[in-house]
Design a protein that fits this description.
Chain A is mainly α. Helix content of chain A is 72%, strand content 0%. Chain A has helices at 4-22, 26-47, 50-74, 89-111, 128-137, 140-161. By secondary structure, chain C is mainly α. The chains are: A mainly alpha, B mainly alpha, C mainly alpha.
């Protein structure tokens, strides 16, 4: 792993995030989000977590982002494509202030910590077979729970979004 | 690529997600911010896994996998909620959805 | 004698009339016959019991202590001590019981006829019975406290009876005056009772040596001295005499007795001649051991000297006033005052027997005279002025006869009538009094005046021409005065007998009465008349009586007045003196100008004090309370409420502030979360934590 590959993907991710923050058009925001997710997936792969990166791209970029696009399209006002409402300046300032403060705090946390400048140890071979074996033996419980959770959330989402039955 | 840079990136991503949640009017974009924050956390996990003493344990990867699944489920439910609220309130502007006030 | 039946049941004697009074008070006033028969039956029963007591004492004569029986009992408990009451049967009690019940019975029977036409007949007998009960209670009581209780009851019933015709303002005023005047005397009596109780520790008269007038107690009181020099015994005796003076109409507390004639004549006879006014004399006789405690070398004490002087002054003073009165009952009233003075003089100079003998004889003939006057008034159809009567000898012979007997007894006609012997005993004792002979002269002059005014009265009423308007009877015909019915004349005759006979009990030949009171049998003493000075006094008093009778006849009997309005011969002789006497020496007016004014002033002061000072104080307190409550209200509404409201306001204000956090906008809470995260991290740094890889 070199410096360059994760850095490029990181920049891509950050750019996508910034775009999602700033852009007016909702669909554009959603699509820039795809970039962010994809970039992050690249970071994962370049760091040696190939399965995680693939999962990221598949689920996030191919699932969540599309879902967001669908939602945007579904909740649109008539002929309204952009987010027109202006934010109150008090909220704006406080939002920016809080975000900045959080970043400063986190950065301070990170930078004041020692032992973070070391080089990475040798990358392990993250074989999918081993991941699968672990998932089925050591981490079987979270797996099952995730299955139940997904089922439940799917059901919940369907029920919530269902139009009310006609009386 | 050292750990602190990765962590800084993760912090920056988290902050951007927080800002999106705080500053955008549309409910869906608030959700977008939440997804970004979740992703920042995932990045943290992978970074720490990569630079940990025993990367062969795959703990970080597994955690991230579960986190991704969770985030997806949560995004689905959240968007369903937003759709339902839009149906009721005829708006998706978070400033106007204040029935929980008081 | 202590255990004989009558002694243990002596309380029945006052109880019977009391029961009669109680029962008849519950009856309706239509039940006249029931009320009268109850009263007369009860009185008759008391008479029988009194005679039984009298005979018991007669049988047990043998010295002062042997002839006395007491029965004391505990009444009320005060802490560790008992208040005791009791009754006593001794010769004094026995003779008083017999007299009171007999005279009372005669008067009760007389009243049946006299009050025939009065609509309050039943009430009259109720009150009469109550009075009889109270008077008998006074007589038998062995405790000064019980005596005082019955004394006050006697005063109460006297008030009720004087004011019997209460619709008449004069009667109501007279009743009030009687009550208040005797009350003034009773204050002294009460003070004396308290002091005696304090000094001797008991109020029982005879208690087997421990009584308050027995030797041990008397030694105590006679030896202590008060601050003004007299002994305690004298002081107490004088205080008790105050009460006696009030009840017995001594000067200066005599003014109520003539006014008490507003009551019906039987009341005047019973209460103001025979019994109640005699109660004062009886009281002095009862506490005579106290009065005579500490005799000095002259054989008398200060208390007895005072009693004698007051008696003598009263006797003379009242006799003077009686000369100028023209109401038949008022003459007799002043005569009563005068005779009461004699009784007190008798006790003061001669001892209990002398005074009591005159009391007993006086009771009979004075009751006779009053009832006779009642008969005259009834016969003349309620006329009371003697100037409007006259010649009643023809119309009312029986009344005239008994009245004459009574009048001669009162004057003290020699030898035959009881009044002679009793008055003579007093004058004899007065002439031998070691302190002074002046009371003797005063008594003699009063005897002269008594004969004079009684002759005046009898001559004006019974002799000459009838000067009055007899009035109309029920049929509307005008007719002359008439004799009274038998129910009224028979008691008169009975009393007339007793106006004569008791005189025989007190002659020097056979001094039965004196010995009886001392608890001994009397013996026939053939040398009784040879006592030094006795014959001289008897001759002197006889001469005085004849002189008075003669003068009275000369002025009033020879040429009786012809019209009702012509002036009195005495008035022509000495108009100024007569006028003063006719207006009763202006004593009432003097009292009015001084005492009544003083009392009114004190009353006005008390009223002012009450209305202004005390009321003002109360109003101040009220105002203070109201001001305080106003202050409380203002504190409550301003300070407390205000503070509370401010507190609540601040709570709601802070609530309003905090509610901004909950305005329903999700991003606001998210901002809060982020801020909290920052603060936590800062805190983390402040404590110097950091992450180590």
């Amino acid at each position: 792993m070199t410096f360059a590959l994760p850095a490029i993907f990181a920049i891509l991710t950050l750019a996508g995030a910034v775009a999602a923050l700033v852009l007016r058009n909702l669909v554009h925001c959603a699509l820039s989000l795809v970039f962010a997710f994809a970039g992050l997936g690249g970071v994962y792969i370049s760091l040696g977590a190939q399965f995680a990166g693939l999962a990221q791209v598949l689920v996030y970029a191919g699932g969540v982002a599309i879902l967001i696009v669908f939602a945007v399209l579904l909740v649109r006002e008539r002929d309204e494509k952009q987010d027109h409402t202006t934010i109150r300046w008090g909220n704006l300032l406080s939002g920016i202030a809080v975000s900045t403060l959080v970043f400063i705090a986190l950065a301070r946390c990170i930078l004041s910590s020692t032992g973070l400048h070391n080089a990475a140890p040798t990358a392990p071979v993250a074989e999918i077979r081993e991941i699968g074996t672990m998932m089925m033996s050591v981490d079987i419980l979270p797996l099952e729970i995730i299955g139940v959770l997904l089922t439940a959330s799917m059901l919940g989402a369907v029920i919530i979004a269902l139009k009310e039955a006609r009386r | 690529m050292t750990l602190d840079i990765l962590l800084l990136v993760s912090a920056a991503l988290f902050t951007l997600g927080l800002a999106s949640s705080l500053l955008r009017r549309n409910a869906i974009l608030v959700l977008v911010g939440i997804e970004l924050m979740l992703n920042a956390a995932n990045l943290n996990f992978i970074a720490f896994w990569r630079f940990s003493a025993h990367p062969e344990a795959f703990t970080g990867i597994l955690f991230v996998l579960f986190s991704i699944a969770l985030a997806a489920a949560e995004a689905a439910v959240g968007l369903a909620l937003i759709i339902s609220i839009h149906r009721f309130y005829k708006t998706s502007n978070v400033d106007r959805i204040d029935r929980m006030k008081g | 004698m202590n255990s004989s039946w009558i002694v243990t049941h002596l309380w029945l004697i006052p109880l019977l009339p009391a029961l009669a009074a109680g029962i008849s008070s519950l009856l309706s006033h239509h039940r006249r016959i029931t009320a009268a028969s109850l009263a007369i039956t009860a009185m008759f029963g008391s008479l029988l019991l009194s005679l039984c007591a009298f005979s018991t004492v007669l049988l047990h004569l043998g010295g002062a202590s042997a002839s006395r029986a007491v029965l004391n009992f505990n009444w009320l408990q005060f802490g560790g001590e008992w208040l005791r009451l009791g009754w006593v049967l001794d010769p004094l009690t026995a003779v008083m019981l017999a007299m009171v019940t007999f005279v009372g019975l005669c008067i009760f029977i007389f009243s049946v006829g006299y009050m025939q036409h009065d609509e309050n007949f039943a009430r009259f007998f109720c009150f009469l019975s109550l009075f009889a009960a109270a008077m008998l209670g006074v007589v038998i009581s062995n405790s000064l406290l019980l005596l005082f209780i019955c004394w006050e009851l006697v005063g109460l019933t006297s008030y009720l009876l004087i004011g019997f015709w209460y619709q008449k303002p004069a009667a109501a005023a007279a009743a009030k005056k009687a009550f208040i005047t005797t009350r003034i005397g009773d204050l002294g009596l009460f003070a004396g009772i308290l002091w005696l109780s304090y000094s001797t520790g008991t109020l029982i008269f005879y208690d087997h040596g421990a009584g308050c007038i027995e030797q041990t107690a008397l030694v105590v009181v006679a030896s202590h001295s008060t601050a003004i020099g007299m002994t305690v015994a004298t002081a107490i005796a004088l205080l008790i005499f105050c009460g006696a003076a009030g009840k017995s109409g001594q000067v200066p507390l005599h003014t109520w007795l003539p006014d008490a004639m507003e009551g019906p004549t039987p009341v005047s006879a019973l209460i103001h001649a025979a019994t109640m006014v005699a109660a004062g004399v009886f009281l002095v006789a009862r506490v005579y051991p106290l009065m005579s405690a500490g005799m000095n070398t002259a054989g008398t004490t200060t208390a007895l000297t005072v009693v004698a002087w007051v008696g003598a002054i009263t006797a003379l003073f009242a006799a003077f006033i009686a000369v100028a009165q023209s109401d038949i009952k008022r003459i007799l009233a002043y005569s009563t005052v005068s005779q009461l003075g004699y009784m007190m003089l008798g006790i003061g100079v001669g001892g209990v027997a002398v005074g009591m003998f005159h009391l007993i004889t006086h009771a009979f003939f004075k009751a006779l005279l009053f009832l006779g006057a009642g008969s005259v008034i009834h016969g003349c159809h309620e006329e009371q002025d003697i100037r409007s009567m006259g010649g009643l000898r023809k119309y009312m012979p029986v009344t005239f006869a008994v009245y004459a007997i009574g009048m001669l007894a009162l004057c003290g006609f020699p030898l035959f009538f009881s009044g002679f012997w009793s008055k003579d005993a007093i004058l004899h004792a007065a002439s031998e009094w070691s302190v002074s002979r002046v009371p003797f002269y005063m008594g003699s002059l009063a005897a002269l005046l008594t004969a004079f005014y009684m002759t005046r009265q009898v001559a004006t009423v019974f002799f000459g021409q009838y000067r009055g308007h007899a009035g109309h009877d029920h049929a509307g015909n005008e007719h002359a005065p008439h004799e009274s019915p038998a129910v009224m004349t028979v008691p008169l005759i009975l009393l007339a007998i007793f106006a004569v006979v008791p005189g025989l009990l007190g002659t020097p030949l056979w001094p039965w009465f004196t010995s009886f009171l001392h608890g001994e049998m009397a013996t026939y003493d053939p040398n009784g008349f040879s006592e030094p000075g006795l014959m001289g006094v008897m001759l002197t008093s006889s001469c005085i009586v004849f002189l008075g009778l003669g003068l009275g006849w000369w002025i009033y009997g020879r040429k009786p007045r012809t019209t009702a309005t012509s002036p009195d011969p005495m008035e022509n002789a000495t108009p100024w003196v007569f006028n003063v006497l006719e207006h009763r020496v202006y004593v009432d007016q003097l009292y009015e100008a001084t005492l009544y004014r003083l009392n009114a002033a004190i009353a006005w002061l008390a009223d002012w004090l009450d209305r202004v000072i005390f009321c003002g104080a109360v109003k101040t307190v009220i105002a203070a309370v109201i001001a305080f409550s106003n202050m409380d209200t203002s504190i409550e509404s301003n300070a407390i409420n205000g503070t509370f409201d401010a507190g609540c306001g601040s709570v709601s204000f802070s609530g309003r502030l905090l509610s901004h956090l909950q305005n329903g906008q999700v991003q606001r809470s998210l901002r809060a979360v982020g801020l909290t995260l920052v603060l936590l991290l800062l805190a983390w740094f402040a404590f110097g934590w950091s992450v180590k890889a």
